[in-house]
């Protein structure tokens, strides 16, 4: 859903942006909210208006060089040509801070107007500026425009450029994939900064630990501008292995303030407790830009570690609805497929089939995501997959842990659903919110507020109430159930509890992988599918080899079973989309709604669930807890963490 930038909203935000009585970190959030309004409004350049540009431009009268620098950055990233006049004015203002003028020059290059003579003239003039930060920036911008001009003649090539990050880079990444070659270019002082920038962004796109360490070597460059860009790129990667280099550079008091500023914001983007401690050390630094950068960086860190429901990219309603329907459907169809009167299928083979299908779907999505379909080159797709999967063995092998756990988890869920009714399974499985929260605390260093822990306790109580049978139902079960059926219920409950543990750990581990590298979500899912298929086949061999040899791998497969397999495969993709456009809280919200849906459908169609008063009380507690955990501290302003890849 796009955000509609009405005049009153823009005017109100603009007034708050220039209000010096407001905390700087709040004004930064307002700035990026304005940027988001423009970016989510009219996409066509001809339809873009100057309203947001004018609203942001008012802040150039502020005394904070950091704020004005960020305003220039936003104007460049908005791809709104109405900003050209203001950016040229800022670039040519000899009384303006060099950091602000640098960003104005880079923004003019980002807008890509290689046919605008006013832009060319301004950049050419300032490329001779005695301040290296300004002259080097303008020369890089001119080189970028020249590159764009050359590429414009080849429309197919220019449209097929793969874009890993959402930001507009000051230089296109080189096509080289060897880290050693790129590092040599990165550190070669005899090469142009434009070419070294291209090597830098190529290393960023590789994103491995080795590439991050190579980028950190760039801090030895003689150009302060280049060191500044090194820090910015490390902020995009958000790798914890870059913390020592960033800390070292920030500690050099004689370092250019632009470099130290960028190091501070990058530490905020990484957001660990160690990063916060470093930033707090420099809150009283002698350089105003550094002090303010640390203040803003701590706000970025708060966002990175919060569980607040944010509208950074807009709530994707269609993804939310899809997840609700998928979560409900998979429970009901799985339950039906395992209890219907038909030849039983082997659940472990269904897991293998769903992983294989997920991999195939993701390959198609990689094709469309990278716009490889423009030249219909199968070889390019194969090369892309080869480079991402086999060309980065260390990155690929990281997925063995979550894929192995997911394989175990999926089989546990099949067992649980064979012995539990749909509603009991669905609500009990919500304990994964507790395990996920604990894993987030211990693995990601996230802070969970007191009211959120209270909501988690409410959730646990709600789950207990929902699974508590009514007196009539309990008496009925006691009079009719055999010891075997009690054992089955115990096995089912044990299976779902084990699944919650594997779900929490695997989910947070996967989230950590996604947030510490630039690899596409779909490529990560392909990697998961590869190992998921392998682990799944191992489980088939260990537990069901004899049955497969007797009646075949696909024994008992029917239309219903194939629907189960499809829902299982598509579920992973829907979750990935929700994580991409929202966060894990949305998953909890969607699951709480699916509790109601699955219970209602189970009662009216499957006839295997009898709701009690305890169930209704528990369901209300579960849903209330989910809302409290995800909505109470909702922040409507956009956080500054704009360096993070979307």
From TrEMBL:
Entry-linked Pfam families: HEAT_2 (PF13646), Nuc_sug_transp (PF04142)
Protein's UniProt name: Deoxyhypusine hydroxylase
Catalytic activity reported: [eIF5A protein]-deoxyhypusine + AH2 + O2 = [eIF5A protein]-hypusine + A + H2O
- SMART domains listed in its UniProt record: EZ_HEAT
Q: What cofactor does this protein call for?
A: Fe(2+)
Per the UniProt entry, what species is this protein from, by scientific name? Rotaria sordida
Per UniProt, the cofactor note for this protein states: Binds 2 Fe(2+) ions per subunit.
The reply to whether Repeat figures as a keyword in the UniProt entry is: yes
Bilayer-crossing residues are 314-334, 346-368, 452-470, 490-510, 522-543, 555-579, 586-606, 612-631
Q: Which Gene Ontology CC terms are recorded? A: Golgi membrane
Question: Which HAMAP family does this entry report, sorted A to Z?
Answer: Deoxyhypusine_hydroxylase (MF_03101)
Residues that coordinate or bind Fe cation 2: 228-229, 261-262
Q: Topology in the membrane?
A: Multi-pass membrane protein
Chief subcellular location? membrane
User: To which pathway does this protein belong?
Assistant: Protein modification; eIF5A hypusination
